[in-house]
UniProtKB/TrEMBL annotation:
<dbReference type="InterPro" id="IPR009051">
    <property type="entry name" value="Helical_ferredxn"/>
</dbReference>
<dbReference type="Pfam" id="PF07992">
    <property type="entry name" value="Pyr_redox_2"/>
</dbReference>
<keyword id="KW-0028">Amino-acid biosynthesis</keyword>
<dbReference type="GO" id="GO:0051539">
    <property type="term" value="F:4 iron, 4 sulfur cluster binding"/>
</dbReference>
<dbReference type="Pfam" id="PF14691">
    <property type="entry name" value="Fer4_20"/>
</dbReference>
<protein>
    <recommendedName>
        <fullName>Glutamate synthase [NADPH] small chain</fullName>
        <ecNumber>1.4.1.13</ecNumber>
    </recommendedName>
</protein>
<comment type="pathway">
    <text>Amino-acid biosynthesis; L-glutamate biosynthesis via GLT pathway; L-glutamate from 2-oxoglutarate and L-glutamine (NADP(+) route): step 1/1.</text>
</comment>
<feature type="domain" description="Dihydroprymidine dehydrogenase">
    <location>
        <begin position="40"/>
        <end position="131"/>
    </location>
</feature>
<dbReference type="InterPro" id="IPR051394">
    <property type="entry name" value="Glutamate_Synthase"/>
</dbReference>
<dbReference type="GO" id="GO:0046872">
    <property type="term" value="F:metal ion binding"/>
</dbReference>
<dbReference type="GO" id="GO:0006537">
    <property type="term" value="P:glutamate biosynthetic process"/>
</dbReference>
<keyword id="KW-0314">Glutamate biosynthesis</keyword>
<dbReference type="GO" id="GO:0016639">
    <property type="term" value="F:oxidoreductase activity, acting on the CH-NH2 group of donors, NAD or NADP as acceptor"/>
</dbReference>
<keyword id="KW-0411">Iron-sulfur</keyword>
<dbReference type="GO" id="GO:0004355">
    <property type="term" value="F:glutamate synthase (NADPH) activity"/>
</dbReference>
<keyword id="KW-0479">Metal-binding</keyword>
<keyword id="KW-0560">Oxidoreductase</keyword>
Length: 486
């Protein structure tokens, strides 16, 4: 244990955010630069070095959290970085974007605020980049085998890096104009500045990974032809089919999927656009969906100068403490105030949209809603609670239903789907097509970034074993593994 009295004498302290009135005027990350370093060693010292570290169970990557906490406490940043990278290809992504199921599973969290695992993680990796500890790791020799990876989100990038380092020649195909998938165009700049992706891509290029942008498998290249060109294929195309809301008025101008709205805001930050074609400026904005994507829409609308922002959630408002049916170490459903929510707006719970109302030009102007209560697991409208709220821009952030099947990728490969519409795979992440594997949301369904990276690493092992007959690559998860929830 780094500090035997750490968790007794030191309280939990997290990263400081910049003042709201300052940060809503720019798109930089919301945290005060450098604010963690003076406090993080003591925060790492709160780790109890448990005999059974349940944080390992909370994290699908199996991160060696007590070990790098100990190194961080001692300010041995090089050793901390080595332990961090032993299980995670991209800790600067997870340290900024993951909701930290590891902290929910922290043993200290039974009766005290848990260790600030995310903050320690992001400090270690930022120090590693600053000190030059993150370097390319090209393979010592090449295998002569080739692999195509479809999709450049966290699952695809993790699989590609692992397979490149194993000696295979890897090409990553991305249908967008830049590498990164939802990391690039789904996550707003204020949550993760894209420079973090850019320097990882340069590391991977130096290791030997090839990148092909603006190429959509299924449309630009026939999937069956791609399979003939490569010795193996990893599908990491994500679950990009957005869940729709089929109510009257859905066709009105101004009602958009979140993944139509957010990428355009990011393209402005990339310098591709001066102003987003879908902007919240001066408008009453309604975000339908109470999850992280909805919060991203809220924060984006604030920065675009929305007149008002309202977020709707059909479920009831979560509590501030664990419910009895969500005991430690499971990941509880708690009321969460993100940085976007700190910046303003209203949040409505237990409400359902009945229809949209527009003007004579077909532009949405009002959203009609009703309060609901759940009976036998289904939401039932409460009579007399109908009302309307102003809505000149509506974003649908209600999650995703599966991988894209309209571009021909699934049909051209001849892939089988499971009961939930995801691409089916066996224990090695292999599909029904020999040499074709699937990792991340395309096979698991919508999930967290840590699960995507873990699946990318695990699928890489399956591919490596298929190509080489054996593999020394790690496989932190099985396709059937599920999050530690109730």
């Amino acid at each position: 244990m780094a500090d035997p009295k750490g968790f007794l004498t030191t309280g939990r302290e997290v990263a400081k955010t910049r003042p709201v009135e300052e940060r809503v005027r720019d798109w930089n990350e919301v945290y005060v630069p450098g604010s963690l370093l003076p406090i993080i060693s003591k925060q790492a010292g709160r780790c109890m070095d448990c005999g059974i570290p349940f944080c390992h169970n909370g994290c699908p990557l199996g991160n060696l959290i007590p070990e790098w906490n100990d190194y961080a406490y001692r300010e041995d940043w090089t050793a901390a970085s080595e332990r961090l990278h032993a299980t995670n290809n991209f800790p600067e992504f997870t340290g900024r974007l993951c909701p930290a199921p590891c902290e929910s599973a922290c043993v200290l969290g039974i009766n005290q605020p848990p260790v600030t695992i995310k903050n320690v993680e992001v400090t270690i990796i930022d120090k590693a980049w600053d000190s030059g500890d993150v370097t390319p790791q090209p393979p010592e020799r090449l295998s002569g085998k080739t692999v195509a990876v479809i999709g450049s989100g966290p699952a695809g990038l993790a699989a590609a890096q692992q397979l490149t380092r194993a000696g295979h020649t890897v090409a990553v195909y991305e249908r967008a104009d830049r590498i990164g998938g939802l990391l690039r165009y789904g996550i707003p700049e204020f949550k993760m500045e894209k420079r973090h992706i850019n320097r990882r891509i340069e590391q991977m290029r130096a290791e030997g990974t090839k990148f092909r942008t603006e190429v959509e498998i299924g449309r630009d290249i026939d999937a069956a032809k791609l399979r003939k060109r490569y010795d193996a294929v990893v599908i990491a195309a994500g679950a990009t089919t957005s869940r729709d809301l089929k109510v009257p008025g859905r066709e009105l101008n101004g009602v958009h999927f979140a993944m139509e709205y957010l990428p355009l805001a990011n393209k402005v930050q990339e310098g591709d656009l001066t102003v987003s074609p879908i902007t919240a400026e001066g408008k009453h904005v309604v975000v339908i969906g109470g999850g992280d994507t909805g919060a991203d829409c809220v924060g984006t609308a604030h920065r675009q100068g929305a007149a008002s922002v309202t977020q709707l959630e059909i479920m009831g408002k979560p509590g501030d403490e664990r419910n009895p049916d969500q005991p430690w170490p499971t990941f509880p459903m708690l009321y969460k105030v993100t940085s976007a929510h700190e910046e303003g707006g209203e949040r409505l719970y237990s409400v359902s949209t009945t229809h949209f109302e527009g003007d004579e030009d077909g532009n949405v102007q009002w959203l009609h809603l009703v309060e609901v209560e759940f009976k036998d697991g289904r939401p039932e409208p409460k009579p007399g609670t109908e009302r309307r709220i102003p809505a000149q821009l509506v974003t649908l952030a209600m999650g995703f239903t599966g991988t894209d099947q309209e571009n021909g990728l699934v049909s051209q490969f001849g892939l089988e789907l499971d009961a939930r519409g995801n691409i089916a795979r066996d224990a090695d992440f292999a599909t029904n097509v020999p040499g074709v594997y699937v990792a991340g949301d395309a096979g698991r369904g919508q999930s967290l970034i840590v699960w995507a990276i873990a699946e990318g690493r695990s699928a890489a092992r399956g591919v490596d074993r298929y190509l080489a007959g054996a593999s020394a690559l790690p496989a932190p998860v099985k396709p059937t593994d599920r999050a530690l929830t109730v």
